[in-house]
Design a protein that fits this description.
Helix content is about 65%, strand content about 0%. The chain folds into two domains: about 45 residues, no CATH class; about 110 residues, AhpD-like (Up-down Bundle). The protein is globular and about 55 Å long.
């Protein structure tokens, strides 16, 4: 990682407070939170938004996890992918669809709402706009709040991926880089 992890005895009182809250909710201070603690007020707000989007948004849990994988793959955030790929499949997204996303291929889904969700996300991330037909289809499945939560999820999880990549947060112990088409951080330093 490009920044040293702040040790508990080096943290300000505010950083300790936020770290304790994160560890209480997420089990430990890992990944991007190790970076964001360098800006405690940002860390607190980003963590709160991420917690809402992962655990409380209007989207079904499988689509919350899928949005994280879609954003992670879009920005090549290998740490995020590794952290969430298992949960995504466990929640009902087909392994073959997840594998296709990892290879940057068009996935096939079992549910029409999952297909509509993927298409909405892909168009927004890749084209920066969503076609009228795609929007109308997604609106039918997810409603207004679901679409607003989808856009917020993509934005938040893309920011998370950019943080992981910019600060070269180390992959989880024992995990391999998940994307065969990039060499990871080494390509940035050669």
């Amino acid at each position: 990682m490009r920044l040293p992890v702040i040790k508990p005895d080096e943290m300000t009182a505010r950083q300790q407070e936020i770290a304790a809250r994160i560890a209480g909710r997420r089990g430990a201070v890992r990944g991007p939170f190790q970076v964001w603690l360098n800006s405690p007020e940002l860390c607190e707000r980003v963590e709160a938004l991420g917690a809402f989007l992962r655990w409380e948004s209007a989207l079904p849990l499988r689509l919350r996890e899928l949005s994280l994988l879609i954003a992670a793959r879009h920005v090549d955030a290998q740490y995020s992918w590794n952290a969430h790929v298992g949960k995504c499949v466990e929640e009902g997204i087909p392994q073959a669809a997840v594998d296709a996303i990892a290879r940057k291929q068009i996935p096939q889904f079992d549910r029409p709402e999952d297909e509509a969700f993927y298409r909405f996300c892909r168009e927004l991330l890749e084209d920066h706009f969503v076609a009228d037909e795609t929007f109308a289809n997604a609106l039918t499945f997810f409603g207004r709040q679901g679409l607003v939560d989808t856009v917020a999820s993509l934005g938040n999880f893309s920011m998370l991926g950019m943080c992981l990549n910019a600060f070269q947060v180390d992959l989880q112990p024992g995990k391999e880089p998940p994307f065969p088409d990039i060499e990871g951080y080494a390509r940035l330093n050669s």
